[in-house]
Design goal:
alpha+beta; Tetrahydropterin Synthase, Chain A; 14 strands; 4-stranded mixed β-sheet; 297 residues; 3-stranded antiparallel β-sheet
Length: 297
């Protein structure tokens, strides 16, 4: 029987040995990717207390520091002792965590009807005036107020009004409107528009600075011209003059000749009026016609 040539067989172990390292690396890589979320979850589970602790520390530190700016007054209430401190200059200050700090602006403008925008303006509509002869007019007015630097006054303001905008809505706006309306009853419509505007402004400033006038109603004899009939000037009849008894509000003077005043509400809080400006008043239609006829005469 002829001898068969034996063909050497390739050792399969060598093949496995050659490819095994590469396959093993891939398996390890895939296993690492699959285990990464689990590893991250384990880290978070172990460190969540640390994260919460750091967040709490941040919040406490943030609520323990407050900054003050110039042009404002800050009222800080200590929640542990009940002590109130006032800061009116710029700086960095420490406080009991989560204790309230209320900010007040030192100067504030109350605006009635003027079309001017700004951060220190709380805008309202024009004030309607009713004069002694029952005519009416709308007038824009600007009042500028300044808070005191005295800490006792600031603490009193804070205890009674608790916030700056409550002070504006509850005190400054009502008293500005009230004084303006009451002072207008001391004038007739014609007196107001024919030379009385500047005196009216000075009376507003005087009353807000030193106290509202004590007033009484008195009767006066007033001459009133009827309206001129429309038509050519030479054909129009002369206006008829009528004498009327008119009730007006007048300030009461004492024996020394000085005007008597009521309690100064603003002075009780140390608030100062530093400016009063009037816009252009707009009379009602009938009063405007009378003023036009008066000018023609």
């Amino acid at each position: 029987m002829p001898n068969r040539e034996q063909v050497p067989h390739k050792d399969t172990t060598d093949f496995l040995t050659e490819v095994e390292p590469d396959t093993h690396g891939k398996v390890i890589y895939h296993n690492d990717l699959r285990s990464f979320p689990q590893t991250l979850t384990n880290i978070l589970k172990k460190g969540w207390l640390v994260i919460i602790f750091l967040v709490v520390i941040y919040l406490i530190l943030r609520s323990s520091i407050f900054m003050t700016e110039s042009g404002h007054v800050y009222v800080y209430e200590n929640m542990l002792t009940g002590q109130i401190k006032v800061y009116d200059s710029s700086g960095i200050h420490f406080k009991i965590p989560f204790s309230p700090v209320t900010r007040y602006k030192q100067v504030w403008t109350v605006n009635f009807g003027n079309r001017f925008t700004g951060k220190q303006i709380l805008e309202k509509g024009p004030i309607q005036l009713r004069f002694a002869d029952s005519y009416t007019a709308n007038i824009p007015v600007i009042f500028r107020y300044k808070l005191p630097r005295n800490q006792n006054y600031i603490i009193r303001i804070h205890r009674e009004f608790s916030s700056f905008y409550n002070l504006i809505d509850s005190l400054l706006i009502p008293i500005s409107r009230s004084v303006t309306v009451m002072t207008a009853t001391q004038y007739t419509g014609e007196e107001f528009f024919l030379g009385g505007l500047n005196t009216f402004r000075m009376q507003l400033l005087d009353q807000l600075q030193y106290g509202i006038y004590e007033t009484e109603r008195r009767q006066f004899d007033v001459e009133q011209r009827d309206l001129i009939a429309p038509g050519p000037q030479e054909q129009s009849t002369p206006p008829k003059i009528t004498r009327l008894k008119l009730w007006k509000t007048v300030p009461i003077k004492g024996k020394d000749g000085e005007i008597k005043r009521m309690d100064d509400i603003l002075d009780n809080y140390g608030i100062e009026v530093i400016q009063v400006d009037l816009g252009v008043p707009v009379p009602e239609q009938e009063l405007e016609r009378r003023l036009a006829d008066r000018k023609r005469l």
